[in-house]
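Handout, page 2. Input:
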Amino acid sequence: MVSNGFFGDRFIDLAGRKGINVDVISSEWGKIVPVKDIEAKLSEKKYDAMTVTHVDTSTGVCAPIKEIGEMMKKFPETMYIVDGVCATAAEPEYVDDMNIDILITGSQKAFGVAPGLAIVWAGQKAMERRKELGRIPEYYIDFDKWLPIMNDPSKYFATPAVNMIWALKESVRIIKEEGIENRYERHRKNARAMQAALEAMGFTLLADKEHRAVTLSNAIYPEGIDDVEFRKILAEEGAVVAGGLAAYAGKMFRIGHMGNIDTHDMVSAISAIERTLYRMGKNIELGAGITTLLKELMA
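Output:
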């Protein structure tokens, strides 16, 4: 298991509850696990599978899944499983080209849909591995149970969350209308603008610059900022952010900029952060964040 943060570590707990033996290779928070280190670990012995979190929301780090996928060609017996929850539909993910065997994501992040749907892509290697397992204890998440429905949605296996399926259908329509490559580029531009604006206001970003995600930013507070007070005043100013996790609890906040957001959303968010800092008595040049944001967006 390759972990770049809190949610990469969650796989360890999940595997433990299933009685699965795992080896873990982790990075310092804010950094990636280098591909060469992953290759060295895989070379030690035969592994049935390897998991990688594409974007870990606890750190804002984006793993190099393309480079990892290329390296995985050297280990054809090991399934390459990617957690794309905070990446799919925003960060490039090409299942076949990147040699991904299983991609797992959810409806609530870059798809711009409410929480409620788990979405799974399983490649040929994964389907063949499923056949080798025979009867398994899992029922509702069994690939073999869902495959007939994927081939013919009129067939019955279990009652789906119909309203969520319709919402996802609309989301996919919006994505196709924009064009997936255009969507990737928009997320890149929005992220760089948001991150530059946060830095202009005195925040430090946890993730290394070359590995920052496009879906969210993890901003470490300047000295003297109380986390609870900051998020309380920010909510009064009309914006809600998530707190830091684990060792960074109380030391930073996490702000998303993914899905179908537009310039108005970003301007409103950055303006709310500026007003919050001002109300907290922080020596800030009002307009610095907004100016930086707009310069980056209009470039």
